[in-house]
Amino acid sequence: MSDIFKPNGPAHTQSESKIRVSPHRHELVRQSVCRWDFSAHEFTDDELLLCAFEMFNHAFTMPEVEEWRISPGQLTDFLFACRRAYNEQVPYHNFRHVVDVLQGVFYFCLALGVLPHFDGKAAPRPKTGSTASLSKILRPFDALTLLIVAIGHDVGHPGVNNAFLVTLKAPLAQMYNDKSVLESFHCAAFSQVLRKHWPITQTVPNMRRLMIESILATDMGLHFDYMSQLEKLKQKIKQDKGMKNWDDKTISANRSLLCTLLIKCADISNVARRYDIAAQWTVILTDEFARQASLETDLKIPTSLAVPPVQGSSIALGKSQVGFMKLFAAPLFQSIADVMPEMNFGIAEVNANMAIWANLITECTEKGDRPFFLEKVRNSLYYQPSSNGAGSSLGASESRLYDFNDKQRTNGGVGVLHAPISNGGDYSGDSRIRKASQAYQEQGAPDLLGLGHHGKEQLKLLKKMKIFSTSSEVYPHANGGGIIGKGADGKSSGSTTPFVTIKNFFSCFPRKFSD
């Protein structure tokens, strides 16, 4: 994560480490990025880089965005920097997830006609021809901005949710007053990457404002606020009988709202993908939330998960998915389709997936629950996590094509945890956060931040969790600087794989850790 911590330092130039993809796989990538059945799990890390490159490069073909174009070499360097800014030890909120979100945004923009037709062999779904669609107020500028937001919206994600940080009174939570903690951090951290690798994006006020608004919108704790705004927009369209009489100010405000809603859709689009693809994402998010649950148990603090994990139950998994889709995904995708009918494919997939999960619940209720369902889904993953932490992804014949990628995978495995959890990330409401924090204090919270006697005991537990590491680069501090972690030999870590250092995760003040 060095790009985040040295905003004034020289930019990395990794163009010499080219994206290693065979011609056959390159063509497959081009065909895949313009399909809604895109599965990020089918691609290596370098192929994911190529996916991102192809999508941005296509956006650059629009003459309206010429002012913000960067060269192919600069784009490659930017994408490498973005990949370095994610922690591959985090099962879900990693570079694979953000490329998936990027592709979701890309496909939306193709379907809405905001991006030109892609010359890959698969074409986007045709537009409905509805004159009522709000898609006509979106501009190429908005499409490019949303693509940039997508690749950086989770930069530096530690694999725990906002409520966890608030409960522990982590420095990030204190810095951002317990509000949209991670999302605010992602904005600040991603801006450092952009300043170094795509500086013009930080000099255009409208672009920067839209980036910040869109990243903050991914906080699921604010979901119903955005749904309320969307409902008001629908009512206004009905009242005004369209948007013909809207002034520039009204158009601009609603354009910004649409952009934030499209990012929200893309961020939870895994439940709107084809079922087998959606199920893969479910398993991975399950693993990440189970790690947090285990950490909370070890720390003896109340859970900050909206639906605590249930060990090895397909019924619990199905119920969590149906619950998430009914409460969050289906209303969002349906309302978006109401104002932009070109997006109808999303709600159709959500409804289909809800039916499949409901059938699974019924079957398991009648015949008995079965934990092996998770294993069955895991076996279909292209990159399979292993229980001992050793990652494996490519066959022997393929691995030679991806030397650069393999070097990045040192200790890159993800542990398997059998614990279903509800999909969609952090959507704990403010009242739940306050109650969790209050309960934690009433129980006599250990002096974790001050590293008193109990705090050191807690750190021993934290170090056991693979979410964190004490031998690599760390998060930025409140003053905008950072500390490079030390390896076991006491020297600065040279690894390009980002980790979270325990000490600095829980303190913005390095002087407390001088020992």
UniProtKB/TrEMBL annotation:
Full protein name: Phosphodiesterase
| Residues holding Zn(2+) 1 | 97, 153-154, 267
Tell me what gene encodes this.
PDE2_1
Instruction: State the free-text cofactor note.
Output: Binds 2 divalent metal cations per subunit. Site 1 may preferentially bind zinc ions, while site 2 has a preference for magnesium and/or manganese ions.
Which Enzyme Commission numbers does its entry carry?
A: 3.1.4.-
The active site annotation covers 93 (proton donor)
Q: Which InterPro entries match?
A: HD/PDEase_dom (IPR003607), PDEase (IPR023088), PDEase_catalytic_dom (IPR002073), PDEase_catalytic_dom_sf (IPR036971), PDEase_CS (IPR023174)
Q: Which organism is it from?
A: Orbilia oligospora (Nematode-trapping fungus)
- Could you tell me which CDD domains the record lists for this protein? HDc
Binding, AMP = 93-97, 154, 267, 321
Cofactor(s), names only, from the UniProt record: a divalent metal cation
Ranges for domain PDEase: 17-364
| Superkingdom of the source species | Eukaryota
Under the GO molecular function aspect, what terms does this record hold? Answer: 3',5'-cyclic-nucleotide phosphodiesterase activity; metal ion binding
Q: Example GO biological process term?
A: signal transduction
Q: Spell out the family assignment given in the record's similarity comment.
A: Belongs to the cyclic nucleotide phosphodiesterase family.
Q: Which residues bind Zn(2+) 2?
A: 154
Q: What is the enzyme's class at the highest EC level?
A: hydrolase
